[in-house]
Amino acid sequence: MRRFVVPALLMLFTAALDSALLPELFVGAWRPRLTLILASLWAHGGDIDGAVTAFIGGFALEAVSGLPFGINLFGLMLGNVVALGVDQAPIPSTVLRATNWVATTTLVYQLTLLGAQIVRGMDVNLDFAVTSVILPTMLFHPLLAIPLSFVVRPAQAALRRGGIRGRR
User: Residue 134 burial by CB count (10 A; 0-12/13-18/19+): exposed, middle or buried?
Assistant: First the structure.
């Protein structure tokens, strides 16, 4: 049970950071979406616990975004499913595979949000969206995923072994 509770709490905490602290520290597209990055890394390194964590991460993003309910969750889950297919590429390095997973998830997530805005009839400048939002996040998120992957992998392994214990 702990292997699901710890990542769920992590997703809720990072969603709170994404909505409260990070907009003040970062401007525009260079603001990292920690929930997206960590949920993607957790999904990359896990089986069912990775899928559950990605779902909880998407749900947490729903709670803090101003978008219609379901778009963040759908984008994050679809991104991880597409990344699962892309992960079949013969990349020998675990870290590079993880960054590739995060880049793929980021791209699909951003395209999902863009598509939702178009469907809702919002005026969308595609050139600006691609050059100022999608491309920067596709570069920035994988770079942030490199150091974070060195934290997520050992945490996942410890949770699977039951090595992270609370006080009794």
Answer: buried
